[in-house]
Structures are given as C-alpha cells and as structure tokens.
Amino acid sequence: MTMPTRRLGELEVSAQGLGCMGMSHAYSGQDDEESVATIHRALDLGVTLLDTADQYGRGANEELVGRAIADRRDQVVLATKFG
After folding, report:
1. Is 27 a catalytic residue?
2. Low pLDDT (below 50) residues in the chain
3. Model pTM?
4. CA–CA separation, 38 and 26 (whole Å)
C-alpha cells in the first residue's frame, strides 16, 4: 500500500506526518535508539513529513531528528518552529 500524499503549496508530503516531540521532550523514558528506529520505520512506510521544534528538549529533538535523517534528507520535508 502506498501512503497518500497532499500538496502544501509547492510541496508534496505524506497525508500523515510524524510528530517527534515525545522522542526527546515532555514524556519520561525517552530512548534515542528507539526514536531513530521509529523515524526510520515511518520513512520506510512512506511518511515524508516530520515535525519538530527547538523548544523540544532545548534543541535536543532537532538534533535527534537530524541524526535520524542524515542519510535520508532527500526523503523528508521537515517542519520546525521556534520561539
């Protein structure tokens, strides 16, 4: 089964995205290895939209996502926020 996509302006993204906040912020028991594996599995299933922010773990989440997608950057639309 192929993941449906949607147009966001000139971008085409998967209909479902992956919110990454809980991978390094707001919940207890974060595990970087498990989080990276989760991101990789989502990409393997066709998810192309990842959401993060600098406030999630004071930048730790963006660093984690960056490590996870380092060799797959061309497969991902990365949404982030600041403030």
Report:
1. no
2. none
3. 0.92
4. 17
